Amino acid sequence: MLVSAHSHSPVGSRSFLERGLLLLVVLMLLEGTVLPLGAASSPDTSAPNGAGGLDHRDDHRGIGHDNMTFQKKPFPVLGINYGHIRLPFEIALWVLLASLMKLGFHLIPRLSGIVPESCLLIVVGLLVGGFIKLAGEDVPPVLDSNLFFLILLPPIILDAGYFLPIRPFTENIGTILIFAVIGTLWNAFFIGGVLYAVCQIEGVHLSQVELLPCLLFGSIISAVDPVAVLAVFEEIHINELLHILVFGESLLNDAVTVVLYHLFEEYAGAGEVTLMDAFLGVISFLIVSIGGVAVGTIYGFLAAFTSRFTSHTRVIEPLFVFVYSYMAYLSAEMFHLSGIMALIACGAVMRPYVEANISHKSHTTIKYFLKMWSSVSETLIFIFLGVATVAGPHAWNWTFVSVTIILCLVSRVIGVVSLTFIINKFRIIKLTNKDQFIIAYGGLRGAIAFSLGYLLDNDHFPMRTMFLTAIITEIFFTVFVQGMTIKPLVDLLAVKKKQEAKRSINEEIHTQFLDHLLTGIEDICGHYGHHHWKDKLNRFNKKYIKKCLIAGERYKEPQLIAFYHKMEFKQAIELVESGGGVKVPAALPLQVSMQNIQPKKQPPAATERALPQFTKSREEEIRKILRSNLQKTRQRLRSYNRHTLVADPYEDGWGEYVLKKQRMIELEKKMTQMSNYLTVPAAPSDSPTMRRARLASDPNAFYNIKTPSDSVPTIHVELASPQSPDSVNLVDEVPKKGAMGQGLSQRNAADMKEDRERMMMPPSAGKGEKVEDDGGETKNPGLQRCLSDPGPSNEDEEDEPFLP
Amino acid sequence: MGTSYSARTEHEFQDLSERTRFSIDQISNLNKRFKQLSNNKETLSREDLASLPDLDNNPIRLQIINAFFDKRNLGHNEVGIVQEICFEEFLMVLSHFQPTRTGTTEDNNEKLRQEKLRFLFNMHDTDGNGIITLDEYRQAVEELLSKAGTIEPETVKAIADAAMLEVASTTRGKMEPDEFYEGITFEHFLQMLKTLDIETTMHVRFLNLDTVNMRCGK
C-alpha cells in the first residue's frame, strides 16, 4: 500500500531518492557478491581460484592442520568460515538480487510501462556479469542446463498449467495444436535448410557446417518460448483468444522440440538421417506428447485422490500439489517424454478436484507459492541470461547471426499466415489479419533455446559457440525489439484488448443455459458435435470421477450455485471494503431493492406487522447494500497476471459473512415465533494489526470487543446476542444443507476476487479492513474446512466454536 | 420416388434454402432427420421430440421442446403454441443456430444477433407477454438446476432475485421504493447479454451433418 502511495505521490523527487538509495544498496550488495560469485566459477573443485578471499576459508580448519605439534592458540572468539556456507549463500544472494530488482522496477512505474520487465532484467544480468568480469573473476556458468530445466523452469510451467483457463484452451485446442506442431516443424526445417544453403555459399567460410547441425540449430531456435511469452504478454493485456493461442502454442511445442532435438543430436554424428529414422521420429513424437500428457494425468489423479484424505492434516496439503507435480515433471523427463506437457496436464487435471477438497488456506498457500516461485524463477532466468551473455564464450559471425534473425522472422510470418489460411476454413471465429500479425510477432524465443544449445556437446558440434552466440542474439532481438514494440503496436493496430467487464450472474446463467440448449439442439439434429461430447464428459465426470476424488458431499454442487456463492462472497468483500453500513453512504448508489422486483404480497397480519416488517426491511436493506455492489464495475482479469499480485486481506472474512447470512435466513423463518426483539452488535472490523494480535492469542477474545472502530462504520446486524440462550439455539439450527455449497465457494470466491484484484495496482484498496476471522462454526462443513486448517501453531484455539 | 417427386423436393429445397440461409446439402440432411424424427409423417409433434432418449439428461429439455412449437419462433407474429410443425417450420427454428457468415455487414450481424437473442428471450418468456417476470426467471433457473441433485429452493430464489436485481439496476437505474420493476424487456435482455458474443457462441455446426451420425433414438 505504501509503495503505491509513493509511486503516485506528486513528490517525484522523494521516489527518486528512494530509488537512488535502493540502487546504492544494490550496488553494495553487488560489490559484496562479486568476490564470492566470482569464486564460484569452479564450483566442484575446491581449489582456490586465485582469489584472495579464499584464504579465510581454511582458516578455521587450518588450526588443527598440523597434528604433530599441538600449539595452543588463544581460543578464536570470532572467525569467518565462508566456504562452509558458500553455496547456499550465493544462491540466496542471487534470489535476493532478483527480488530486489523486481522491487526496484515497480518503484519507477514509467519505466516499467515502456520497457517490459524481461528486458530490464536481462540488462541487470548484463551489468552483474560485467561487474564480475571487471572484478577479474570468471563469470560463473549460472545458466547451467540442469539448473534451468530441473529447478528454474518447472515452477513457471506449473503455475501456467495450474491456472490455465480451461475453457478457451479447449475451445481452441485444434488451432493451438496446428500452430504448435506444424508451425514448429515448418520453422525448424525452413530455418535449418536455408541456413545450410547460406552456409554453402562461397565466401561465407561456413562450409564446414553440415546439414544436420543446421537442422538441429533450426529446431532449437524455432520453438516459441513460454517464459518469454508469458513475461511479455502479461503486460500488454491482449484479448483472451490471442493470449491463449500464443501461450498454448508455446507450451505444446515442447514435444516437437524434444523429438527434433534428440533426433538430430543423435544422428548428427552419423551424418545422415534415413527415412526410417524419420518415421521413427514421428512415432517418437506421438509417444513423447501423449506419454507426457498421460504421465501428467496419472500424477494429477493421484494428487486429487490424495487430497481427498487430507482433511486432518491441512498443513501439508499444498505440499502434495507441488510434490506430485514435480514428480510428474521428473518422471516424464526421465523417459525423455515432454516434461512440460506432463506438468501442464498434471496441473490442469488435478485442479478442479483438489480445489474442492482442500481448505481455503491451503488454496491460498498454493496460489501464492506458485506465483512466488514462478515469479522469482522468471526473474532469475532473465538475469542469468544476461550473465551468461557476458560469460561467453562467443564466436560472432555476422552472416550466420543476421541470417538467423531474418530467417526466424520470415519463417514465422510465412508459417502463421499459411496455417491461418487453412485453419480459418474450420473455425467459426476467424482469425483476422491483425490477429495473425500479433501471433507472428509474439513468437518470442527465450531461455529454453539457450539451454538446449548449451546442452550440446562440444565435441560433436564444434560450431557450438557460434550457435550459442546466434541463439543469444536471437533471444535478445525478440525480447528487446519485439517485446518493447509489441505494446505500442497493439495499441496502434487497435487489437481487441482483454475484456474488463465483470462476469455477472446473468451471463453465467445464460452461458450454462446456452450450453444445455445447444446440446439439446444437437441431439435433436442427431448430430454428435462438440456440445454433445462436452456434455457427456461432464456427466461422466460428475457421476464417477468426482465421486472418487472429492471428499464428502461436495461433488454434487452445481456450477451455478458455486458461482452464485462466489458472487455473494465478492459482494460481502466489497461491502466491507467500502465500509458500507445500514446507513448507506452516498458512494453506494442504491438503485433497486428487493421490493422493486417482488410482486406485491399480502401484508402480514396486523398484530405481527411491527416485528416482521422491521426485521424484513432490515434484511432487505442489508441485501440492498450487498447487491448494490454488483453494479460497481470492477476490473476483471480473464487471464492471469503475475505482476500485480495483490494481497487479499479479505479471504478470511467469509466465515463471518456466512454466519451472519445464515442467521438472517434463520431469523426470517423464526420471526413469527419469536416475540422478543433480538439484537446483538456485530463484531467490529478491526485494523490488521489488531486482528493479527488477537488471532495470535485467543480468538474468542475479540468477541468481547464491542467498540466499533471509528474509521469503518460497521454492519449492525440485528441478531441474537451471544449471551442470550436464544442465540445458541439459532446457531444450532442453522441448516446444514444450505451451507453445503459455500465451502467450495470460499476459495473460489477468493480466487475470483484474486483474479479481479490482480489488475489493480498494488493495493489501492488501501484501507485494509479485515473482517475478523471466524473462530468456528462447527455446523457448517464449508467453514469447518476453512477453520480446520489450523496453521502451524496454536491449533486448538482456532477450532473452538465462535460462540461460547 | 418418381422424378416429379424429386424435382418437387429439389424445388422446395431451393426455396427453403433461400429463405432460411441453409445450403441445399444441409437442408436435405435435415430433411432426412426430420423424417426420422417424425416417423415419416409430414409433421412433427411434441411427442416425437419428447421421446428422444438423448434429451433425457438435459435439464431444460421441456423448454427446448416448447421452443420448437412456439409460434413466435416460427415466424408468426402471434403468441401461442402449435401442436405440430412442418419441415419448413422445423428449419426456421434451426436457422436461429446458424453461425454468422464472414463478410456480412455490421447491420446484418446485428440483425442476426437480435434474432438469436429473441429466440432465447422467447424461451424464457413463457406466457408471451414480452416481459420476463421474476417468476418466469425463477422458473428458468430452477429448470437449469433441476438435474443437479437436490437444490435448496432458497438458493434458487436467491439466485434469480440477484440476477433480476442486477438487470434492473443496470437498466433502470435508481428506482423509488414503491416503483415496481415488472420484468426484463427485450431491450434489457439485449443489454444484459451484450458481452456474451452471441453470434459466435450460439451456433451448431451443421457442416458435418451426415446420415451416418444420425441416430433415430426411437
Walk me through this protein's architecture.
Chain A: Belongs to the monovalent cation:proton antiporter 1 (CPA1) transporter (TC 2.A.36) family. Chain A: This is Sodium/hydrogen exchanger. Chain A: It is found in: Basolateral cell membrane. Chain A: InterPro entries: Cation/H_exchanger_CPA1 (IPR018422), Cation/H_exchanger_TM (IPR006153), NaH_exchanger (IPR004709), NHE-1-like (IPR001970), NHE_CaM-bd (IPR032103). The complex is a heterodimer of chains A (804) and B (218). Helix content of chain A is 65%, strand content 0%. With 804 residues, chain A is an all-alpha fold. The N terminus and C terminus of chain A are likely disordered. Chain B has 218 residues and is mostly helical. Chain B has a domain of 114 residues: Orthogonal Bundle (Recoverin, domain 1). Chain B contains ten helices and two strands; from the N terminus they run ααβααβαααααα. A two-stranded antiparallel sheet of chain B has the order 1-2. In chain B, helix 4 packs across helix 6 and helix 8 crosses helix 9. The two termini of chain B are 25 Å apart. The C terminus of chain B is likely disordered. The chains are: A mainly alpha (804), B mainly alpha (218).
